[in-house]
# Entry
Amino acid sequence: MSETRTEPCRDASVIVARDDRDHVALLSAPFPEHGGEYLFLPGGRIETGEDPAACARRELAEEAGVTAQLWRSLGSYVITLGSTSRVHLYEARSLTLGPQNLTESEQDFKLAWWPIHDAITAATQGRFLLPAGPLALLLATRDACP
# Structure
């Protein structure tokens, strides 16, 4: 096994925002350094003094213009063996839609609402660049455990 780094890195939160029609908020943007346009779920890095759930609420509101009444944790996972960072996955339900509030670096983010099973199909086709989105989608489709 390779040596792991222990330098501090910021954790991130990723959100499956799921409406009452079983559609999810998906973002897309060009990533020319990786060969094209990719899909991803709303999410981002945790800011100083912020907990993962607060980050999830903030990122969902900024990137998708969505607030949610119901939240469910889908777990926390190490991003890579070479990092101490974790990604915290959430499902958000009972949604209220509003305007996106994108930062300058997010201006090319396009928001669309996809049936969750179509989003999972897109994941199996390699249309997501990062693995947290597909994992969160799959976990969101399982029944809540007691």
User: Anything to note?
Assistant: The chain is about 20% helix and 35% strand.
